[in-house]
Amino acid sequence: MNYRHGFHAGNHADVLKHVVLLALLEALMRKDAPFFVLDTHAGRGRYLLQGGQAGRTAEAATGILRLAGAKKPPAVIARYLQAVAADNPVDALLVYPGSPLLTAQAMRAQDRLAACELQPEEAAALKDLFARDARVAVHARDGYDAVRALLPPRVDGVRIARGLVLVDPPYEAQDEEYPRVARAVREALERWPQATCAIWYPIKQRRSLQPFFRKLEAIPARSLLLAELLVRPDDSPLRLNGSGMAILNPPWKLDEAIAPALPFLQQKLGETGAATRLEWLKRDVG
Ligand code: SAM
C-alpha cells in the first residue's frame, strides 16, 4: 500500500468525483428521513494544497485551482466550490477537503457516515478530524470487508433505508482491484438494495475498462449511469487521462443535475482532445 491521496488531492479526478458526490448527497437531502453513507476508501479527509505531498506534484493546479473564481458555474459546480471554500480562508485555497469531510459537511444531524481507511497513518488523521463529530464513525479497516460488517446500516438498532456507498480505491494492483470492487458492490446491493453505489475509476485507455463495465452491468441493480471526464485523449496506458463515476441506482434526475457540469469541466480542465460522457448502461423504465 504505497498510495497516498495527498499527492493527488484536488486534481481533475477529485473534482469530478466530488462534484458527483455532492450531487448525490443533495438528492438524498430532498427528504427529511435520515440517510447513511459508507465511504469504503476514505483517505485522511483533509489535504494541504501548499507544500507537502500536494505541493510536490502540483496536480491541484490543473484541477480545483483552475475553477476558483469561475464565473456563473452550473449549480452542482457552484455547490462544490462553496463546499471547498468552507474549509478555507476567504480568497485563498490552502486546504482540500476529501470525500468524508465533504460528506460530513453536507450531512444533517440525523444522517450518519461510516468512513473506512486501511492505511494506519491516514486512518489516525481521519480519526482526529472527526473526534468531535458523533455522526461520523471512522473505521481503521478494510473497506471491502466493511460492506459485510456494516450493511445494511442500523442506528440504535433501527435500520436506515436510504443512502450511498462510495467506493474509491487506489487501483494500485488493477487486475485485483476491479473484481474486488464489482464483488463488493454486488454484495452491498444484496444487503442493502435501496442504496445508491458510486464507484470512481481511472481512465488511461478506455477500451481496457470494458470487462469492468460488463461486470457492473451484470449486478442486479435498477440502473447504471456513467459520468466521465477525459482531460486529454485516452491514448496512453501510463497517464491518468481522465476518470469516471459509475453510479448504480442513481437518484431521480441525477443525470440532469450533472449534465451541465461535464462540458464546463471539459472547458476549464481539458487539453486538446478532452471529452466527456454521460451515458446510461442500464436504465429503469418502470
Ligand atoms: N475517497 C477519498 C477522497 O475522495 O477524498 C480518497 C481515497 S484514496 C483514492 C484511496 C484510499 O484508500 C487511500 O487512502 C488508501 O490508503 C486507502 N485504501 C487502500 N486500500 C484500502 C482498503 N482495502 N480498505 C480501505 N482503505 C484502503
Automatic annotation (TrEMBL):
A single GO molecular function term of this UniProt record: 23S rRNA (adenine(2030)-N(6))-methyltransferase activity
Protein keywords: Methyltransferase, RNA-binding, rRNA processing, S-adenosyl-L-methionine, Transferase
Protein name (database record): Ribosomal RNA large subunit methyltransferase J
Gene assigned in the entry: rlmJ
HAMAP family, alphabetized: 23SrRNA_methyltr_J
Site description Interaction with substrate rRNA, residues in chain: Y3
Reactions accelerated catalytically: adenosine(2030) in 23S rRNA + S-adenosyl-L-methionine = N(6)-methyladenosine(2030) in 23S rRNA + S-adenosyl-L-homocysteine + H(+)
Role, per record: Specifically methylates the adenine in position 2030 of 23S rRNA.
EC number: 2.1.1.266
Subunit structure: Monomer.
Cross-referenced InterPro entries: RlmJ (IPR007473), SAM-dependent_MTases_sf (IPR029063)
One of the GO BP terms on file: rRNA base methylation
Coiled coil: none
Family indicated by similarity: Belongs to the RlmJ family.
Source organism: Pseudoxanthomonas suwonensis
